[in-house]
TrEMBL record:
Protein name as annotated: Epoxyqueuosine reductase
KW Secreted (keyword) present: no
Cofactor(s) required for function per UniProt: cob(II)alamin; [4Fe-4S] cluster
Organism for this UniProt entry: Thiohalomonas denitrificans
Binding site for [4Fe-4S] cluster 1: C200, C203, C206, C260
């Protein structure tokens, strides 16, 4: 028996509404739109096991919300369906990622953070999608999310047919994994889409490519070893044994995506806002290390990088400079920061100088 709504405006049937939602989503710049139910019981078990193992590190917020992350109605009362969307972000104009990684004098920033912050852009588009739905069916219960609340976005997207969770724990599909995810929790009993079958097979490219071996088992990442966690989420000192493995990655890490065979088929984004700003795709570490806080705030305005803060920005670059060639300009840049910096940054500067054979107060003592 078909479910009918009180749709006086257009008298749409659920299947028609779902078809319109997908079409409206594409018009708003989403490359895919899917609909799923709210049964995340299998994902909940995996998530709780991951937390129990301590793989979330200092990300206490991952455990703080209990089952609200895996049971949508506990987060938004009345939710019975989730509209999941993806938006491609690989910028066409960015310097070649492999070339930047190979040049240890340059700073590597994850491709997703080179342009404007995706959160506001996607939230606005999702809010517009919700308005179109409301125009068709009248007021309805909903809430928009873009990495902004306790949501298991990857399992939801997988159930909605947007792709499958790969062995690196990211969502991917036959056109790659360079995309953002967003959701609308709704109280409309829409027809649901079919989940995508996984297509990783015996491939272990991402497992082998991870510089810190953070993918401790297929589909399981120990965040405490992940360079994205170390350079973005970790607030304190980066463990010394991991610093040499970070290389020149100063904000995030894309290695598990760069090596994925499916990413050979990825299309570049059509969103101009995701193109690199301020030459962040190809700037030298020495130049980036010279930014004072005012410069950092000016250059990262509207960027996801700003949440890092100037102190951790310098911490990360200090580590990268320690992994760079022992050239005069690099040594001078480190020595210039030796005194006028916080204890956290100074610790990493002294480590970096030690990597280049420069005596530190600790080694001299």
């Amino acid at each position: 028996m078909a479910i009918s709504y009180n749709m006086d405006r257009q008298n749409l049937e659920p299947n028609d509404l779902a078809r319109h939602i997908r079409s409206w989503g594409r018009e708003l710049g989403f490359q895919a739109v899917g609909i799923t139910d709210i049964d995340l019981s299998a994902a909940e078990r995996r998530f709780l096991d991951w937390l129990k193992a301590g793989f979330h590190g200092e990300m206490e917020y991952m455990a703080r919300h209990g089952t609200r992350r895996s049971r949508p109605p506990e987060l938004v009362e009345g939710t019975c369906r989730v509209i999941s969307v993806r938006m491609d972000y690989r910028p066409a104009g960015a310097a070649d990622a492999d070339a930047v990684l190979a040049d240890s004098r340059q700073g590597y920033i994850s491709r997703y953070a080179l342009g404007r912050d995706y959160h506001k852009l996607m939230r606005k588009r999702l809010a517009n999608l919700a308005k179109r739905i409301e125009a068709a069916v009248g007021p309805f219960g909903h809430r928009v999310f873009v990495d902004s609340a306790p949501v298991l976005e990857k399992p939801l997207a997988e159930k909605a047919g947007l792709g499958w969770v790969g062995k690196h724990s990211n969502l991917l599909h036959r056109e790659g994994s360079w995309f953002f995810l967003g959701e609308i929790y709704v109280d409309l009993p829409l027809p649901i889409d079919t989940a995508t079958e996984p297509h990783c097979g015996s491939c272990r490219a991402c497992i082998d490519a991870c510089p810190t071996r953070a993918i401790v088992a297929p589909y399981v990442v120990d965040a405490r070893l992940c360079i994205s966690y170390l350079t973005i989420e970790l607030h304190g000192s980066i463990p010394e044994e991991l610093r040499p493995l970070i290389g020149n990655r100063i904000y995030g890490c894309d290695d598990c995506q760069l090596c994925c065979p499916w990413n050979r088929f990825t299309a570049n984004t059509a969103e101009g806002d995701f193109e690199p700003r301020h030459e962040l795709d190809s700037t030298s570490l020495v130049e980036l290390f010279a930014w004072d806080e005012a410069r950092f705030l000016q250059r990262t305005e509207g960027s996801a990088i700003r949440r890092l803060g100037h102190e951790r920005w310098l911490r990360n670059i200090a580590v990268a400079l320690g992994n760079a060639p022992a050239e005069p300009a690099i040594i001078e840049a480190l020595q210039a920061r030796r005194e006028a910096c916080s204890p956290l940054v100074r610790e990493h500067v002294e480590w970096a100088l030690g990597q280049h054979g420069i005596e530190t107060p600790e080694s001299a003592g």
